[in-house]
Structures are given as C-alpha cells and as structure tokens.
Amino acid sequence: MSGIDEATDPAALIEAYYDAGWTDGLPVVPPSDASIAAMLAVAGLEGHEELGVIAGRNAVVLAEKAAINAVMAGCRPEYLPWVIAAVEAVCTDEFNIHGVLATTMPVGPVIICNGPGTRAIGMNSGMNVLGQGNRANLTIGRAVQLVIRNVGGGRPGEIDRATIGQPGKFTCCFAEHEDAFWEPMHVERGYRAEQSTVTLFAGEGVRGVVDQISRTPESLTRTFARCLRTTAHPKLPLAFDAMVVISPEHLRVYEEAGWTKARFREELDALLQLDGHELVRGADGIEEGLPEGLASVTLPKFRDGGLLIAHTGGGAGLFSGIIGGWASGTMGSEPVTREVRT
Question: What distance in Å separates the CA atoms of residue 150 and residue 62, rounded to the nearest whole number?
C-alpha cells in the first residue's frame, strides 16, 4: 500500500486493507513478497498459473492471488495446496459459486477435508471441530472465502445477496475422522483412502441433533430422519440437499449393531418418504408447500445423492449436527470433490 511502511506501522497497513475492502470484517495479515513466494514454493506453482474462473464476474483466479489471500487469512505455507484444491472446486460449473453467492438463502462453501494430509497439517477432526481453535481448519476456509470475495467479487450487497447470511461465510472447513467403522467421505465418493481431498458442499449453518437416550440404531435413525425432514422446510421435498455430521458417540450405536453407512442411508431413505397429503399448501395450516395435485403422491425428502454423511467431532457427547444445503442438482449446486496435490 503506497505511503505506508509495513515494518514500522503494521496497524496502519491493516487499516488500509479495511479501507480497500479486502477483508471479511476481521483483521488480515498483510502479505509480503517473501510470504507469497513461500506459499507458492510449497504448492509447486508459478504465480501466473490459472486455477479456474469464478463465474459471475468471469474472474480468473491466478495462483498468486490464491497465495495472497491465503497469507491474508493467516495460513501456513503448507495449507496452500488445500486452498488451491478448494478454489478449483469452487470454480466448477457443478458447484455453481455464482448461484451460491447470488441466492438470498444463507449458504456458502462448506469444506470437508479427507486423507492423510489432514493429519500432516494438524487439522482438527475432534472436539469443537466446527468451532474455533484450530489454525488449519479456520484459515483454509477463510482463505477460500477471501478468494471468492477479493477475486470473484463476492461481497455482501454486491454479488453476495444473502438475506441474513450465517457465520460459516467467514469460514467452514473441517476434517473427518478416518479411523472409524464407516468409510470416509472421499472413499465413498470414489477416491482411495491414501489420497487427500477436499469436498465442497453449499451449506447453511450447522443445527444440532440431540439424542442422549437412543441406544439402538432403529431409534437413533428415526431421530435423524425427523430432524432432517425440517431441512429448509418440512413440507418441501427434493429441492434441497443436506449433510449429516455424526459424532463418534452416535456412530458407536451403529458400529455396535453392525450397521454400515449404506444400511444407515437405506433406513433413512425409507423413513424420509413423505406423504403428499402432509406436504400440500394449506396442510397443517401452513400456506407453504406443494401444489394440491401432488396430494396423492409419496415423495422422498432428498434426491439421489442429495444427502452427504460426515463423521467428525469429539469423543464425548451424544450430539450430532445437520448442515442444510442450497437448491439441489442442476438447478442449484452439486457437491464437488478434488484431490489435494501435495
């Protein structure tokens, strides 16, 4: 920034970044040539290399721009390959970042990280996994959001039109447990266990699932189904995706009963077949809902592939979560997985 000595007046430089509109509302780390070069060296990239295009403004994301925003977010250099993979996923037509930003729904990129690389960089997959405290989780997600803001123009009131927004628009990034009974998300999505990946999901804020009594998978699955039905609205099927974030204590109920992840999905699907009479406009005194002509139809709450399952969190506590999604499939956003090249 012209006229500011970074070495003697860092506070003024931070204020200048605020004035330029380059922050998410929190202070950022002013990048230097040396810090940008260190980022790019770890990723094995030249600054001019293109990572993709953020639709809407048709903004080309250069590796240098990703590195700059990663420094600003507080990333260590070894985090940049994760930021790069997530940015590449953001730039796909399937993820549809322009739609995710331009919708008035409170959604943004949720980043699920898998593979041995998560442990190598010290990501949290345990206690308070979706909260504060872990540098890798928080800064990787923040860097991606800063790229979207500073390169793609995703600022509130401009391209970002969210009515109420949500805290995940600062950062929402976490690692899965991978020593569990169920296969991790990236294996379920066709990758090998030894590969490191990021999966992007267009999600809202996390909502808690509380069941401290169920000790059978049948009972606990009914709890998840009842909570999942409320995604977006209990009378709106098929239009919205969701993610179940299941904790170790809840997963233990399924492990002890020998239920695979596939069995869990099948049972959930059966419980989420919804009677059209309960879904039509006016039912239960609620004007929202489906046209009257669908009263005699049974509809699933989620489309095929519209329900993700992530296993993460602390080892104590019978609490899990649900992250609701945006409009599903070709009319909205698809989850996208990319390998992290380290």
Answer: 12
Question: What Cα–Cα distance (Å) separates residue 190 from each residue in 88, 181, 215, 251, 336?
Answer: 18, 18, 31, 22, 12
Helices and strands counted in the chain (H then E): 12, 11
**Degrees to nearest 5, angle at CA 342 with 88 and 168:** 45
**What is the rounded distance in angstroms from the CA atom of residue 247 to the CA atom of residue 251?**
6
* Distant-in-sequence, close-in-space partners of 63: CB < 8 Å, separation ≥ 6: 40, 43, 45, 46, 47, 48, 49, 50, 51, 84
Q: Per residue in 81-119, pLDDT tens?
A: 999 999 999 999 999 999 999 999 999 999 999 999 999
Cα–Cα distance list, 59 to 62, 98, 118 (Å): 9, 11, 29
CB 199 within 8 A of CB 213: no
196-230, pLDDT tens digit by residue?
Answer: 999 999 999 999 999 999 999 999 999 999 999 99
Q: Identify the helix (H) or strand (E) that includes residue 324.
A: strand 319-327
